[in-house]
Specification:
Elements lengths: L3 H7 L8 E7 L3 E7 L28 E2 L2 E2 L6 E6 H6 L4 H16 L11 E9 L22 E14 L34 E3 L2 E7 L6 E6 L7 H14 L14 H5 L7 E3 L4 E3 L7 E5 L17 H4 L12 H12 L4 E3 L1 H4 L7 H7 L1 H7 L3 E4 L21 H4 L5 E2 L4 E2 L4 H5 L10 H8 L3 E4 L4 E4 L3 E4 L1 H6 L8 H8 L16 H4 L6 E3 L17 H12 L14 H11 L3 E2 L2 E2 L40 E2 L4 E4 L3 E4 L13 H5 L15 H10 L4 H6 L5 H7 L6 E14 L13 E7 L5 E9 H5 L11 E10 L2 H9 L7 E10 L5 E12 L9 E7 L1
Parallel strand pairs: 13-14, 13-15, 15-18, 32-33
Antiparallel strand pairs: 1-2, 3-4, 5-6, 6-7, 7-8, 7-9, 9-10, 11-12, 11-14, 16-17, 18-19, 19-20, 20-21, 22-23, 24-30, 25-26, 25-27, 27-28, 27-30, 27-33, 28-29, 29-32, 30-31, 31-32
Protein name: HET-domain-containing protein
Organism: Hypoxylon rubiginosum
Length: 842
């Protein structure tokens, strides 16, 4: 006999007595429970306001029963504000939304400081945590039928909370808006300080009566207090079995002998069974931990020379008050069957001035050899522990206090391509400098967040949230094991909605696991031998935007990345930069030419909007020499090139014509040769000037780490490129600045400068200011601009010189420090009256 929901849809329900029914669950297993035919006294429909009436019937949800979709319901958007929600206090859904807002205001106190009528909420839903991009199919939306009296649908809403200006109060209504009228953060015009908007995605259990006409009888928040270790174990085993050495290095007989031999001297691990710190004699399989050190000095227990012997004694860690995160990680390793754990705080002698630097420089080996890394991707540094581990439940409203789900409106599910970006990328852990390379260098990452656990390897990803929905037939996490058994069925899998017809399909039949697609953003967080210069630039941008407790750690916390890339590229790294590529653009002893000397985040976007080939397609125009602290002055092993060809300056200088350019919207051969011949700095002129100034070399010998090279130098004025239409920009607004030659003609731009910085340096009547600029390399304009220039036959504007604004030090040779970078039109450089000099860039 059909399921009650099938009968409800077809109008065939007709019962007078309570009878047992057999239903087919996900076309895999039969379950039996009684269906109520009479009006059960506990089936009391909830009071709902007019706006929420649609939720009273179960057909608002798109769920599957016996392979049939009940209804394809489009996600709705409604507008309201806190005052209106309070006025609908008798409405159960309004009360639930209001409660979620109050929970959010506990985290964002600024929300409580404004009048209720000026806090607007856009409500979008329903959404389900069940969408999968595997083969473009969606997972089945099966209701929770574990209670014979109720049909429970688990869903979440997206609540966008924002500030509503006074002038918009009358226009604001609770009517559904068209799709194109999406929520926008309003501009404050009355001088008030605008609270920051926020988005929350509370999760609800919608309980419908199990009768002829199901009615909404209850709304409850649903959270999962603990994660199931067996689910995590299955993820790791699946990766081991299917991906093999693609994702993790093997220990024992199959180990990579080179990497194992490279483990630093004094390498230690925690023995989670003996509860001690040991220095293993042979290679061992171990797990690494990435976390944030606690701000509480009393919690900063660490390995030191004075306690090494103590911690090596079996059972010593049981007698020590170790931080909660470390204690929970030890327990988790034991539960997962892993004996050894590496934790920097307890495995590196922190006050050993010889051992500690060696361990820091070997971070690439330590993290890449770990079988996986436990990452405490949390938003607090209190060090209490790992949320969801046994005996440490998550916050009762974790879904509200955590990063919101990113829903796919069309599919009414979550966007799996951004699950890790959303849950991990916005965490406090991901904003710390040291954690960058720990994430990048780890081949398998087990993220523990406030609300769920996620997994990522080289080939796939997994999210605990997909296992929540699939285990709703029983509240116990152990139900996931039952679902895992179903994956071996010959019929359709509830995880993928596909038949078991191939090994590739079977490989993904693990609860919560899905294949990572190439277009996912997280692909950039995995250091591979095929890493490109584009990847490197992305990583530098990310890393340089993070926070370090000590600015002097800027290169130490990046050392592991440099070591790995150095091996992959067969190149030395100098102050965070690969020697084999052209020199590109904190203090201390770091030379100004390195990005590590900058006090602000690095931005390579000005060079190439899409990180395409333009990023590395430059014209080499300089022979760089490096004042090596050990070897003395030496020529850098830079891969010289001419835009699309890897070719040396010497080879170019021996040619009458430069290599022709390919692709559309590029200047022809005759035009290219004419423009470069007329430029004071070109390959022919560079080749004629190999000798460095002896005075400059003498000065450089006293400045280890400096770059020495011959190039052209010009003095230019700096001005605002434009003013905004809204009046004078704020002092911290960032724009490109305009560069003028001595005749006042605009010749180029300086990239990403604060308005106030330009304002105090621009020339005004009676006070002319000139600044020194040096040429470094050449390039073509961006493709989209070249397309427009070609239409107007402006071929001479397509070539640019990469230039650097420098601050010249008061000495006879040209000794300078980097200030900023920009470009000058190639055809205008001769009008800037440049002169050849030997520059010492320190």
């Amino acid at each position: 006999m059909p399921h009650i929901l099938d009968e409800y849809l077809t109008g065939e329900a007709s019962f007078s007595v309570e009878v047992p029914r057999i239903i087919r669950y996900q076309q895999l297993r039969y379950l039996e429970f009684p269906i109520r035919a009479d009006n059960h006294p506990q089936f009391t429909p909830l009071d709902l306001c007019q706006r929420c009436q649609a939720w009273s019937q179960i057909d608002i949800h798109s769920i599957i029963c016996r392979g049939t979709v009940t209804q394809t319901f489009t996600t709705s958007r409604e507008n309201t504000n806190i005052e209106q929600l309070r006025g609908n206090s008798q409405c159960a859904l309004c009360a639930a939304i209001l409660d979620a807002y109050y929970e959010c205001s506990q985290v964002l106190p600024s929300l409580r400081s404004w009048p209720p009528q000026r806090i607007a909420i856009e409500i979008a839903g329903p959404f389900y945590i069940d969408q999968d991009y595997q083969d473009g199919r969606e997972l089945s939306r099966q209701p929770d039928i574990s209670d014979p009296d109720y049909i429970v649908v688990r869903t979440f809403l997206r609540l966008q909370v924002r500030y509503l200006p006074r002038e918009n109060l009358e226009e604001h209504s609770s009517e559904q808006r068209p799709a194109e009228q999406k929520s926008q953060v309003a501009t404050v015009t009355n001088g008030d300080h605008e609270p920051q908007p926020c988005t929350i995605t509370p999760q609800f259990k919608m309980k419908y009566s199990n009768e002829e006409k199901p009615a909404l009888c209850g709304i409850e928040g649903w959270e999962t207090p603990y994660f199931d270790v067996e689910v995590l174990r299955n993820w790791l085993k699946h990766c081991d079995d299917v991906h093999g050495t693609q994702c993790v290095a093997k220990t024992g007989e199959n180990a990579n002998s080179y990497l194992l031999a490279s483990l630093p001297e004094g390498f230690r691990v925690i023995d989670t069974q003996e509860m001690s710190v040991i220095e293993p004699i042979d290679s061992v399989r171990y797990v690494a931990l990435s976390y944030m050190w606690s701000c509480d000095p009393d919690s900063n227990l660490q390995l030191e020379k004075s306690n090494v012997d103590t911690f090596q004694a079996p059972g010593s860690l049981k007698k020590t008050a170790i931080p909660g995160i470390i204690a929970d990680s030890i327990a988790l390793c034991r539960d997962l069957g892993e004996r050894y754990l590496w934790v920097d705080r307890l495995c590196i002698i922190q006050d050993d001035e010889i051992v500690k630097p060696n361990q820091i420089n070997a971070m690439d080996i330590i993290y890449s050899l770990a079988t996986f890394t436990i990452i405490a991707a949390l938003n607090t540094r209190n060090g209490v522990g790992l949320p969801g581990v046994s005996s440490r439940p998550r916050h009762p409203r974790a879904s509200i206090r955590s990063q919101p789900h990113n829903p796919d409106v069309e599919g009414q599910g979550i966007n799996l391509g951004e699950v890790i970006t959303t849950a991990v990328g916005n965490s406090l852990w991901n904003k710390r400098g040291w954690t960058f390379q720990e994430r990048l260098l780890s081949k398998r990452r087990l993220f523990i967040t406030e609300s769920q656990v996620l997994f990522e390897c080289c080939e796939g990803q997994a999210t605990e949230s997909l296992t929540w929905t699939l285990s709703t037939a029983c509240e116990s996490p152990g139900r996931v094991g039952f679902l895992a058994e179903q994956c071996d069925s010959e019929e359709a899998s509830p995880m993928t909605g596909i038949s078991e017809t191939s090994e590739s399909q079977r490989a993904t039949a693990v609860p919560g696991f899905y294949k990572r697609h190439d277009h996912f953003y997280e692909d950039s967080f995995g250091l591979k031998e095929t890493a490109s210069i584009q990847d490197y630039c992305k990583w530098v941008e990310d890393y340089s935007s993070r926070q370090l407790s000590f600015g002097t750690d800027i290169l130490n916390a990046f050392a592991g990345v440099g070591s790995s890339l150095g091996v992959a590229w067969n190149s030395k790294f100098l102050y965070g930069l690969p020697e084999s590529t052209s020199t590109a653009s904190r203090g201390g002893d770091i030379p100004s030419w390195s990005w590590a000397s900058s006090l602000t985040a690095i931005n390579y976007g000005w060079h190439s909007s899409f990180y395409d080939d333009d990023l590395i397609q430059i014209a080499s125009l300089v022979y760089f020499h490096y004042q090596d602290p050990i070897q003395g002055l030496r020529k850098l092993e830079v891969k010289e090139r001419w835009i699309q060809d890897e070719i040396t300056i010497e080879e170019l200088a021996k040619r009458e014509e430069l290599p022709p350019l390919k692709r559309k919207h590029v200047p022809g051969e005759w035009r290219t040769n004419k423009d470069w011949r007329e430029c004071p700095q070109n390959p022919w002129e560079t080749f004629k000037r190999p000798a460095l100034s002896p005075d400059a070399c003498s000065i450089a010998a006293m400045i280890p780490g400096s770059l020495v090279f011959n190039t052209t130098v010009a003095s230019l004025e700096i001005d605002h490129l434009h003013y905004t239409d809204k009046g004078s920009p704020k002092e911290y607004d960032v724009f490109n600045a305009l560069l003028r030659n001595r005749q006042g003609e605009g010749v180029g731009t300086l990239n990403q400068m604060e308005f106030r910085w330009v304002e105090v340096r621009r020339s005004v009547e009676g006070n002319r200011k000139l600044f020194d600029f040096i040429a470094l390399s050449g390039e073509l304009e961006k493709w989209n601009l070249r397309k427009h220039l070609s239409r107007d036959d402006r071929w001479d504007d397509m070539w640019l010189l990469d230039i650097m604004l420098v601050e010249r030090l008061p000495c006879k040779p040209f000794v300078a420090r980097r200030v900023a970078i920009g470009t000058v039109k190639l055809c205008k450089w001769k009008d800037c009256e440049p002169m050849w000099e030997t520059v010492v860039l320190c």
